[in-house]
Specification:
With 467 residues, the protein is of the alpha/beta class. It contains 14 helices and 17 strands. The strands form three sheets. It has a nine-stranded mixed beta sheet. A six-stranded parallel beta sheet has the order 3-2-1-4-5-6, with helices on both faces. Strands 8-9 form a two-stranded antiparallel ribbon.
């Protein structure tokens, strides 16, 4: 897909769309009568992210939400989370879930078209097909990452963006990491040239940007242990780590380093190297995560003779983005010894390095540091203070503390630490605003295409290396 096609997509996406013109629901909530409201269609929710976008109510979204799924534990887990949110003692939601269960769930949703926005978060094997089919049916789509887990799916996704533009609907993915305050402030500071200078010219061995994300299979969600479906461990259904969590990290690099710059994936991205490796899980660990006593047949190719599941859980990619050398590392382990999922990010400038750490010294919370090139530099100390004053205009209360080693710690008020789950509502609110405006920012579509090209091409490179 060349830049000419991308420009056509952008221009078509800018046309005014209608977001609530679909037929109204079966059982109308007595408090909702506005047919112009957004109506949610949740298709086969197999991941808890589908519920997190409904952890709060929105004035612009009808409280009647339609769910289409096969009968089974996954849809029940989704509905249980919605019930939990509806019964919260503080700020309860008021969702009325109207559910269809059956093997023909997808066809039923497309036949009925009772809503205007399809929410997709679950098994990724058919996700790109569902996206393409949804936009072809003139339905808007809010999809959890990843929207594509292979090079073949990438081509379908490009076609989906073309179709979305023609149908005048908005296709958007859920990028929660843009709402994390440490990522926001790292971005703000790196574009303060007095403080940061310019991004340092690096190499593959000494990248300008390094991001490592560590996740854990065993975790709590909304205060309760998470039960993952067995297919979560199948790369054909969930995707490899590079193409899954890697999506967030590639997005952050583009969003921070080249904000609002329209990218051309055919010219601006070069995959230099990539590799993948497994995380071994015992049958006992697998049961604690999934509740299953046995491995399903589709996982047989990944089980060694000693019954250890070699999970496709880790990946690394080295690439250049408009000449910027980037290293991305994604890892999954069984269970955190302390803390939880972690995000570590380093961006090197000509005047300082900006680094997010999330280790024991940070009490396993992300903390942003400013590392000057010289550990004792009074002139730079004054610059740090001035830079933080600029941030204070948008984020009141942010301060800095100089550490004994010469680094500066960015101190962020607790009010900005809303937690990962709250970021889903923030994404939804941005998406609702785009629906009102009838368009996405002009850089979003080409940059989503660039993002998924990067992840799927890196995975393709890694798989070819392993042959």
């Amino acid at each position: 897909m060349d830049m000419k096609k991308i420009k056509i997509i952008i221009s078509l996406s800018a046309l005014i769309i209608s977001v609530g013109c679909q037929p109204s629901g079966q059982e109308k909530d007595s408090t909702v009568n506005d047919n112009k409201m957004v109506k949610l269609l949740t298709l086969d929710p197999g991941h808890f992210h589908a519920a997190l976008v409904q952890k709060k109510n929105y004035p612009d979204i009808d409280t009647n939400a339609y769910v289409y799924a096969p009968d089974g534990p996954e849809v029940e887990a989704h509905l249980n989370l919605i019930r939990q949110y509806n019964s919260n003692p503080e700020n309860p939601t008021h969702w009325n879930e109207i559910v269809y269960k059956g093997s023909d769930f997808a066809q039923k949703m497309f036949d009925e078209k009772k809503g205007s926005v399809v929410v997709l978060s679950g098994n990724n094997r058919l996700k790109t097909d569902y996206i393409l089919r949804s936009v072809d049916s003139a339905l808007n789509v809010l999809a959890d990452k990843p929207m594509a887990i292979s090079s073949a799916n990438f081509e379908k996704l490009v076609a989906a963006f073309e179709t979305a533009a023609k149908q005048k609907v908005l296709l958007y993915d859920i990028m929660t990491e843009r709402s994390e305050i440490t990522n926001i402030l790292q971005k703000e500071l790196m574009h303060d040239s007095t403080l940061f200078g310019e991004i340092k010219k690096g190499t593959e061995k000494d990248p300008s940007v390094i991001i490592e994300s560590i996740h854990y299979f065993f975790k709590n969600v909304s205060g309760k242990p998470l039960i993952r479906p067995t297919w979560f461990f199948d790369p054909v259904q969930q995707g490899d780590a590079i193409a899954d969590v890697g999506t967030h990290l590639v997005d952050i690099v583009q969003w921070q380093c080249l904000p609002e710059v329209v990218l051309d994936y055919q010219k601006d991205i070069q995959i230099n190297s990539a590799r993948i490796w497994p995380t071994p899980l015992t049958p006992t660990e697998f049961k604690s995560i999934t509740g299953s006593d046995t491995y399903p047949e589709f996982l047989n190719p990944y089980i060694t003779k000693d019954s250890i599941l070699q999970t496709h859980a880790n990946g690394e990619m080295n690439y250049t983005l408009k000449g910027i050398p980037v290293k991305i590392i994604v890892r999954w382990d069984y269970k955190a010894k302390a803390g939880g999922d972690s995000h570590n990010a380093t961006i090197k400038g000509t005047r300082c390095t900006l680094e997010i750490r999330q280790g024991p010294e940070e009490n396993f919370k992300p903390v942003l540091y400013i590392l000057p090139l010289k550990k004792s530099d009074k002139e730079f100390d004054a610059i740090v203070q001035e830079s933080v004053k600029k941030i204070d205009n948008a984020y009141p209360g942010v301060t800095v503390e100089k550490q004994n080693n010469g680094e500066w710690k960015v101190v962020i008020p607790a009010k900005y630490d809303v937690g990962h789950e709250a970021h889903f509502a923030q994404v939804m609110e941005r998406y609702l605003q785009y629906l009102k405006e009838g368009k996405l920012p002009e850089w979003e579509v080409p940059n989503m295409i660039a993002k998924y090209y990067t992840t799927t091409k890196a995975l393709e490179t890694a798989l070819n290396k392993n042959k």
